[in-house]
Design a protein that fits this description.
alpha/beta; Rossmann fold; GMP Synthetase, Chain A, domain 3; 2 domains; eight-stranded mixed beta sheet; 21 helices; about 30% helix; about 25% strand
């Protein structure tokens, strides 16, 4: 019997229309935000020199706060909770308005002007939202940095973005540990030359840190006591709004900026298509500040849509029941999570999703890497009432490349796939010569991008670095650096970074192909695979309580052999090296195996893992 899924056909038709006439497709989506002056047109020029909604004047802070006051004044904009669940805050939209204006007033007094870059280094606390939106209120450019970067990397980023002002906090708390952020900032600024002139410190009620002369200012000491109002500055749609840094393989981190107009429009379209949120939804994005996911949700979508968000400070595995208890506590209906967090929940066992009442939860969106079949099966079995969605995007392209847009209609979910072509994006799989490949043939994933969420490179006014980095490998296409294939129904399967592809017996094997098999083994929690010559080496994290022995090693090898893959060596490890966004750093594993320089490891979540891996190799 033949099947026909009408919503799938409609989404495909929408994707085709977006490619054929992007101006028409994006025209009505401009209404997702309020404009002080309407755009003169929708699109001007071709990528990477394209401009979206040129002439349009707007302000992100106004869209996230001011425009909601007539109707949403008393609605909760954000809940904040810590990992102990013993302290929480509720922030209404009126509270948000007051706090953003106070933060804006202080930044204005410190001399922040339109176009200045302001850096933030903070945990996920309400003040991070207040100051981020305050930066945008003044028409300045926001640069959020990871808590946990090396001194050298952080100083490089300060110099690259040109920040004269850094906003930070006294400390943060994660996994039961106190992280002394201000002490770290002092070390960076004492030992490196940077443009930072003022450090604005949110003390959080603590005073056990140094206050340096004329440089440091304690926010609580100068915060206005009464009401203040700071006028949102008028900003043209294509002016930079925020800078994100991505890790380079061997060179320096790259600064990529997104705009004040088109970027926000594109993100709001993306989440209408993926989640289709309602006014009663509560949305929790499980992320640290330094990953673009945190600002994407908590600055540019949740408050712009007038929704309620959850801010969480801590580590999701600090307590086994933390995830489900937070869902229950705030009636969370939408979760946006890194792939690693979902794997962590699986490794913690059923208690992680069953201890609390999760009946409010409607959809979980996975982002980072394609969710492997084992994790998807576990989530589906333990949360049968929840849709598991996927989206594949890059910092350079923050409109989904492929996704499961359930907000537009019910479509099949294919475990291991990133989804179908997302309306507003265009991907192809090509061979070494740039020719499009038929279904099921593996090749390089490239884009013909024409949407408002394409990043430009910071300090690259003529787009020379952008063209060289992304547009030179396959002329006419933007090269993602990823390897994969599409099936007969147009679902995209991302098999890993092209640099990580394993060449074995004249066949090209993507790392995720083998990893998906290994993690479906009943005693395995996580795995990472690399090629070494023509051999396949697997780093395997067993599930908690599993005894590591030679029998398990051989059992996993046989399990892979039965699936068609010869794994030559298995190394058992306690954890895998990951970025703070949850992506496995396979090139670091390669470097350790080959005794080579791992290159830029500024986004590595915990540098101590390097020694752990070296010890595992000795065993």
């Amino acid at each position: 019997m033949a099947w026909k899924i009408y919503s799938l056909d409609q989404i495909r038709s929408m994707a085709r229309l977006a490619i054929e006439n992007p101006s028409n497709f994006w025209r009505d989506k401009a209404s997702y935000i309020t404009w002080f002056k309407a755009p003169e047109k929708i699109l001007e020029g071709d990528p990477p020199k394209d401009k979206w909604f040129p002439g349009g004047i707007t302000n992100i802070s106004y869209n996230a706060v001011d425009r909601h006051l007539p109707k949403l004044r008393n609605k909760v904009a954000f809940y904040w909770v810590n990992e102990n669940l013993d302290y929480k805050k509720e922030i209404s939209y009126y509270d948000l308005y007051q706090e953003v204006n106070k933060a804006s007033y202080v930044l204005d007094q410190l001399g922040v002007k339109k176009g200045d870059v302001v850096s933030i280094l903070m945990p996920s606390i309400p003040e991070a939202v207040y100051f981020s939106l305050a930066v945008h209120r003044l028409g300045a450019v926001l640069a959020i940095h990871y808590v946990g970067l090396s001194e050298e990397t952080l100083s490089y980023r300060f110099n690259d973005c040109g920040s004269k002002i850094l906003i930070t906090s006294s400390k943060a708390f994660r996994n039961g540990n106190e992280i002394r952020i201000k002490d770290f900032v002092d070390k960076v600024l004492e030992s490196h030359t940077t443009p930072i002139k003022k450090v604005l410190v949110v003390s959080r009620g603590f005073s056990d840190f140094n206050v340096i002369g004329n440089r440091d200012v304690i926010y609580e000491d100068i915060k206005p006591k009464g009401k203040v109002y700071v006028r949102p500055r008028e900003v043209e749609a294509n002016e930079p709004a925020t800078i994100y840094y991505t890790s380079g393989t061997t060179g320096r981190p790259k600064g990529l900026y997104h705009t004040n107009g088109g970027y926000v429009v594109a993100l709001n379209w993306a989440f209408k298509a993926i989640f289709n949120p309602t006014e009663n939804d509560t949305w929790w994005t499980i992320s640290e500040l330094g990953w673009p996911v945190w600002p994407m949700a908590n600055l540019y979508v949740i408050p712009v849509m007038g929704l309620t968000g959850v801010l969480f400070e801590g580590y999701i595995a600090y307590k086994r029941d933390l995830f489900s208890k937070i869902i229950e506590k705030f009636n969370v209906s939408l979760v946006w999570s890194s792939t690693t967090t979902l794997y962590t929940l699986k490794s913690l066992g059923d208690e992680s999703v069953k201890s609390g009442d999760t009946s409010s939860l409607r959809e979980i969106l996975n982002t980072g890497e394609p969710l492997n079949v084992g994790a998807w099966s576990w989530l589906s079995e333990n949360l049968p009432h929840v849709k598991i969605a996927d989206a594949y995007w890059m910092t350079e392209h923050l409109c989904p490349i492929a996704a499961t847009p359930y907000g537009l209609g019910e479509i099949p979910y294919k475990p291991g796939s990133a989804g179908i072509q997302f309306p507003g994006s265009c991907f192809l799989v090509v061979d070494d010569e740039g020719k499009q490949l038929p279904p099921r043939q593996k090749g390089y994933i490239v884009l013909k991008p024409l949407n408002p969420a394409e990043a430009k490179m910071w300090n690259d006014p003529y787009h020379e670095k952008l063209l060289k980095q992304y547009w030179s490998r396959f002329p006419g296409y933007f090269y993602t650096g990823d390897y994969g294939y599409v099936d007969e129904e147009g679902y995209l399967y991302v098999l890993g970074r092209a640099d990580d592809v394993i060449r074995s017996a004249e066949e090209r094997i993507g790392t995720l192909e083998v990893e998906s098999v290994i993690v479906s083994h009943p005693q395995v929690a996580e795995a990472a695979v690399i090629g070494h010559g023509n051999n396949i080496i697997a780093f395997v994290v067993p599930k908690q309580g599993v005894k590591i022995e030679e029998g398990l090693r051989n059992d996993i090898k046989n399990y892979c052999r039965n699936a068609g893959y010869i794994v030559d060596k298995i190394i058992f490890v306690k954890r895998l090296p990951k970025t703070k966004s949850g992506k496995i750093m396979r090139r670091l594993l390669k470097a350790i195996i080959n005794n080579e320089n791992p290159g830029d490891i500024s986004t590595l979540d915990d540098i101590k893992i390097l020694e752990e891996l070296k010890e595992a190799l000795k065993e």
